[in-house]
């Protein structure tokens, strides 16, 4: 199976940890939240979800809302999130929420439910109250948005045939429509390959799902985003249409999709929301997919965003975004100074063994760097462990245990949270062990994707995570990820390549190159001819070609291939 990672033209290994750590907290996607378990069983198996996110700044804090979460989260720095249960929002467990700050209140609305709630104190999840809603038009995936002139608009759409629509609404008159709804974005799989459903955009016989509209304004232009082709695919991404007014007409941005990540440890970058932080920096919060135990088994991610004023294009930086990166607490430009920490993922080629394993979930899956597979012990008893042999002594700067909840008999609302207690230890010989992460006394509502930055680097060849408390279900990990350096020289070499466009389907292009000795992966970069920027890229491991169908039928592209 080919492994592909979308990127955005940045050199991963070029930035030092010292540069990053001095300017803000360090995180790694998926965002580490206490993701809630589903309300129903997925094929009889437990599963978590959060999706369709939106972040709104209120006062000096950020508020993150997502589908099916029984509440929302608050943060001061976009890195550390506090969960707030919201029983006063009666529709809190519906899909695709939208929030909008209007005249001293934060308003909330969910998909397919024409009910609106508001509060002046969102730090209190019990303070929301329902307001009149005269908007009676059926709406999937709503987006409330206020322009600079204080006029408010509602956008919606989530369908494989129906378009994205919008209309102005009168807040003082119960959000009643002002005028007639306008069709804004229709399906166009014939022209835009990324809208075609499938893991490699190959289900050309039917439309994908165009959904999740969101609006942002920049330099007088209106950027209406939408997601395609479906939340269950790693090719799930967000595109942009640009217009001169809130209701268009809009023109598709040629460099679409602007937010796209079909590979890496966890893929997907669709149905998101673009917002400004307190420093004026742009960020995109989006949906990532697992979709193994249920189609809606999903997580959230955060990507830096930048506008190109000359070409009126917008791009989210998704390359290596499931590796540690800094969230600068100042104004920054991701195209000028990388926010990545420059670590390697040391566990991706590790030899794994375990105290025990369940059929279909052997130890190797705990170190394959793919979230759709996971290691599971035979039990959740104290003492179960997963051990990785890195092959040589490495300098470990950070660890990220990604817990898989295998066999956990929880559905929301659960009587008690899922809490993991464990420790992580290192060794040079696999015999004598020293603990360097101690979570044995943990009582926190689970942190299933916590990135743990070490106070000082640890040198070890062997790393082991040990369960320290009996749990329901089985002790399990999508992956135990280790970040740092292994002392090897970094290869970065431009590679000659050939490009073949499918004459029967111009949306599909194959890029081929010769193998480079000692290369572990290749980066294929591309951009629209004449733009001067190779603004998208894909990483390929264990192969010397990339065949993909996410290109525009009528666009021409420049390419570059580099070996690493």
UniProtKB/TrEMBL annotation:
Gene3D superfamilies: Galactose-binding domain-like, Glycosyl hydrolase domain, family 43
Entry keyword annotation includes Hydrolase: yes
GO biological process: carbohydrate metabolic process
Pfam families: F5_F8_type_C, Glyco_hydro_43
Keyword field contains Hydrolase: yes
Coiled-coil ranges per UniProt: none
SUPFAM superfamilies documented for this protein: Arabinanase/levansucrase/invertase (SSF75005), Galactose-binding domain-like (SSF49785)
InterPro entries from the UniProt entry: FA58C, Galactose-bd-like_sf, Glyco_hydro_43, Glyco_hydro_beta-prop_sf, Glycosyl_Hydrlase_43
Domain F5/8 type C: 341-485
Alphabetical keyword list: Glycosidase, Hydrolase
GO molecular function: hydrolase activity, hydrolyzing O-glycosyl compounds
Family the UniProt entry places it in: Belongs to the glycosyl hydrolase 43 family.
Name assigned to this protein: F5/8 type C domain-containing protein
Annotated organism of origin: Muribaculum intestinale
């Amino acid at each position: 199976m080919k492994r592909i990672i979308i990127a955005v033209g940045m050199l991963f290994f070029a930035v030092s940890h010292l540069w990053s750590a001095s300017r803000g907290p360090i995180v790694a996607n998926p965002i580490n939240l206490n993701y809630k378990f589903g309300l129903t069983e997925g094929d009889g198996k437990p599963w978590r979800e959060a999706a369709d996110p939106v972040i709104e700044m209120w006062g000096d804090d950020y508020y993150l809302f997502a589908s099916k979460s029984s509440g929302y989260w608050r943060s001061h720095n976009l890195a550390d999130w506090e969960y707030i249960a919201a029983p006063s929002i009666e529709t809190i467990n519906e899909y695709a929420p939208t929030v909008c700050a209007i005249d001293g209140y934060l308003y909330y609305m969910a998909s397919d439910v024409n009910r609106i709630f508001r509060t002046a104190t969102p730090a209190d999840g019990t303070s929301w109250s329902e307001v009149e809603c005269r908007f009676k038009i059926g709406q999937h995936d709503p987006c409330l948005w206020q322009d600079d002139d204080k006029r408010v608009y509602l956008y919606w759409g989530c369908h494989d045939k129906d378009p994205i629509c919008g209309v102005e609404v009168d807040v003082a008159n119960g959000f009643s429509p002002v005028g007639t709804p306008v069709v804004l974005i229709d399906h166009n799989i014939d022209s835009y390959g990324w809208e075609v459903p499938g893991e490699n955009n190959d289900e050309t016989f039917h439309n994908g799902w165009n959904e999740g509209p969101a609006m942002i304004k920049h330099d007088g232009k209106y950027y209406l985003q939408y997601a395609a082709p479906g939340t269950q695919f790693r090719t799930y991404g967000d595109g942009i249409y640009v217009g001169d007014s809130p209701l268009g007409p809009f023109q598709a941005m040629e460099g679409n999709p602007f937010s796209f990540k079909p590979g890496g440890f966890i893929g997907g970058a669709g149905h998101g929301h673009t917002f400004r932080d307190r420093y004026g920096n742009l960020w995109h919060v989006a949906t990532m997919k697992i979709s193994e135990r249920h189609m809606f088994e999903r997580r959230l991610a955060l990507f830096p965003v930048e506008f190109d004023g000359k070409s009126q294009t917008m791009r989210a930086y998704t390359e290596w975004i499931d590796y540690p990166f800094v969230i600068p607490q100042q104004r920054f430009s991701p195209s000028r100074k990388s926010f990545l920490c420059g670590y390697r993922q040391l566990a991706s080629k590790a030899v794994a063994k375990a105290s025990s394993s369940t059929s279909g979930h052997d130890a190797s899956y705990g170190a394959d760097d793919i979230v759709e597979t996971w290691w599971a012990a035979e039990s959740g008893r104290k003492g179960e462990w997963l051990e990785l042999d890195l092959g040589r002594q490495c300098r470990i700067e950070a660890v990220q245990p990604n817990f898989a909840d295998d066999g956990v008999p929880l559905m929301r609302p659960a009587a008690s949270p899922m809490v993991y207690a464990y420790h992580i230890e290192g060794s040079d010989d696999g015999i004598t062990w020293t603990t360097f992460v101690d979570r044995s006394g943990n009582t926190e509502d689970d942190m299933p994707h916590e990135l743990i930055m070490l106070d000082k680097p640890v040198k070890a060849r062997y790393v082991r995570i040990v369960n320290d408390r009996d749990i329901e279900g089985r002790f399990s990990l999508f992956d135990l990820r280790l970040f740092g350096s292994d002392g090897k020289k970094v290869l970065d070499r431009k590679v000659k390549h050939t490009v073949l466009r499918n004459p029967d389907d111009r949306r599909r292009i194959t890029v081929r190159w010769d193998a480079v000795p000692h290369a572990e992966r290749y980066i294929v970069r591309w951009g629209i001819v004449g733009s001067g920027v190779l603004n998208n890229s894909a990483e390929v491991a264990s192969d010397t070609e990339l065949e993909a169908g996410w290109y525009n039928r009528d666009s021409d592209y420049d390419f570059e291939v580099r070996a690493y």
